[in-house]
Write a structure and sequence with these properties.
Distance between the termini: 77 Å
Strand content: under 5%
Radius of gyration: 22 Å
Number of helices: 9
Structural class: mainly alpha
Order of helices and strands: HHHHHHHHH
Length: 236
């Protein structure tokens, strides 16, 4: 009985220690930034996968629709991926809000005169682009995923839904604007993600910046090419 009691107490201490470490990690600024980096990386990964699926439009309606049906046929795996993505977005937003409150609490009085030194437009607008994307995402889902906001939506015909949506010039214009906002968020997010996990040696900063720039250009140009191709009649 004594041995069992000792083992039980040891297991309890180990469990409590693990919870304590996770609690300290979560409450620390460094821990929050690492969580931001990980959830941001999940978001960037989704954006790249989403872009690759969108670009199938250039291969024709059958290719795009066949891949869409293939993804839906995976059943539970697709819902698992969605759950991971939604969780990552929610956690990302919560941590961002908590870091903002911490930053404001550390400086309750604003600067009387402030000039941006060593920062980019993307970094200075990071919070605002995040808010705008948070507004855009549900509208985008209701428009092209569920068809709630799409007047000519056809179930299981992704190609038709995309092309018919972007034939409306102001829909394409708003989408292109949203992709520009996404680009600003992805650029700074990709850059700061490496710094958050400690990968910020001066030797690699140039390469990291080039990588962030490349990812941003591919994402933005790839996404906006679809509505532009529709408006030009290349996709119809």
């Amino acid at each position: 009985m004594n041995k069992i009691a000792i083992r039980s107490k040891t297991a309890t201490r180990v469990g409590a220690g693990s919870v304590g470490f996770l609690g300290v990690f979560y409450r620390s600024t460094v821990g929050k930034k690492i969580i931001m980096a990980v959830t941001g990386a999940i978001g960037v990964g989704f954006v790249i996968v989403h872009l690759s699926l969108n670009l199938l439009a250039y291969a024709g309606a059958s290719s795009m629709n066949d891949v869409d049906r293939l993804l839906k046929s995976t059943g539970g795996w697709l819902w698992l991926a969605r759950a991971v993505l939604i969780t990552a977005v929610v956690v990302h937003v919560i941590i961002a809000w908590q870091l903002l409150r911490t930053s404001r609490a550390s400086r309750p009085v604003d600067y009387q005169h402030w000039e941006p030194v060593g920062s980019t437009f993307a970094s200075r607008t990071m919070r605002w682009t995040g808010v705008m994307l948070l507004l855009f995402i549900p509208l985008h889902v209701l428009h092209l995923a569920s068809g709630t906001l799409h007047p000519d939506f056809v179930a299981d015909d992704v190609y038709h839904n995309v092309v018919s949506a972007f034939r409306v010039w102001y829909v394409s214009a708003l989408y292109i604007l949203a992709m520009g906002i996404l680009g600003l968020h992805v650029f700074h997010g990709s850059w700061s993600m490496f710094q958050s996990v400690g990968f910020n040696h001066p030797r690699y900063r140039g390469w990291i910046r080039h990588l962030a720039t490349l990812v941003t250009l591919v994402v933005v140009l790839g996404f906006i090419s679809i509505p532009i191709a529709v408006l030009l009649g290349i996709l119809s």
